[in-house]
Amino acid sequence: MDLTAAVFLQAASAVAALVLMSAGLALIFGMMRVINLAHGEFLMLGGYATILAYGQGLNLWLAALVVAPLVVGAIGCIVERLLIRHLYDRRTDTLLATWGLSLFLIGLVTTLFGNTTRGVSAPLGAIAIGNYSMAAYELALIGFAVAVVALLYLGLGRTRAGLVARATMQNPDMAEALGTDRSRVYAVTFTVGAALSGLAGGLLAPLSGVVPTIGAAYMAKAFITVIAGGAAAVGGTVAASGLLGSINSAASFFVNPVIGEVALLLSAIVLLRLLPEGISGHFFRTGV
User: Fold this and answer.
1) Which of 11, 34, 208, 223 is the most buried (most CB within 10 A)?
2) How remote is the C-alpha of 216 from its chain's centroid?
């Protein structure tokens, strides 16, 4: 019984981490069809913002939940205004531009802070599960992931702003003819996606630490999850995170973390081979 509970909680924590690191990319790619190869670096910047703010004496929760999303959201807004807005509907150019941005951010952060890992201790201590134990902070991540999913679902599916944003992405010419400022909708969507990435980076920093090149690992997992989830930004991401995170966690728990990463990748390959349009493309095409 203890083992079952420990495995279940570890799997839930792994799913929560995938949801958090994928949410920003899912919003930007799922709605705007912009493949942001600098997504991993946005998470990395969120981690650095959290650690630097904490080092200046700010409470860790405020640093992760407020400072990180605000800083990275502001950076995302600048990037959208100066770079991305000129490349909509030009996917190859967007890929190259965001790849270049990724390299620039890695170089800039390495120059400013060096190439060593920085970290901060996870708060809340540990909890015992029979003969096993896990960090209580990992349970907190589950709650934050649920909150992010709920806010995205309600924001996109139950508010006027969300409905306008979805309508603009589906038919921008008609939306503009009806008086919607398409440019503003794109800017806000990209900024919110960047802020979600910063939030994820800040929340994951106590568990993984931060180094300038950590974005590559984040990007790989997030991209696999979003593609496997399909077109639905929220439902698809949650479904793919649940499946892939559970497989990764179980393999890591019973074998080792390396096998867990391999199992995640192989599962995604098999999933996309069976469901080329992703989970949401096959099971719930009209979902958010």
Assistant:
1) 34
2) 13
